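Board work, copied verbatim: 16S rRNA (Guanine(966)-N(2))-methyltransferase RsmD
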Amino acid sequence: MRIIAGKYKGRTVKFPKSNLVRPTTDKNKESIFNFLVNQIDFDGIRVLDIYAGSGSLGLEALSRGASEVHFVEKDFHVSKMLEENINSLNAKNECKIFRMEAIRFSKIKEHEKYNLILADPPFFNYDVHIVVKNILDNNFLEDDGIFLVERSIQTKGKDEEAFQQNYFRKLGDSLIYIFNKEKKLL
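↓ predict structure ↓
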């Protein structure tokens, strides 16, 4: 896996060999960021990468100009690899890792506001439905913020019922859902 664009372009992002992590493919990441670049000015934004895994999505945003990226990753060993990836970019001052479950993080009442929130949970993990609701209800997004969730085509029915909207875009076997502060698809 690599960083596609920006100041860290071409740098490798390591990920653990574990069934706990399902990294977004470079092709999907490129499609996601091609869309986002037309929606957001990355310079100086604050980003939240939930279910961060190796941190590939958040580090891509950092490379493109985000000033601060917060990562949420519950697994200790996976978060250690995330920390290695951050350190390999000398980006420790711009990054913060929250070692906790996404549901617990999404319930925090006193929190930062983010311009971009990225969620790429394990495909058959359904706690993301609660996390999306909590984040939107608890006002994690800035007024012009975007919340992007990557899911599997195999979970489409349950996801669309829980999110109360259709997917935005299909990328291979992934479906992309996008929310704004009003909980609506863009």
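The helical segments are 26-37, 56-63, 76-88, 102-106, 128-137, 156-163.
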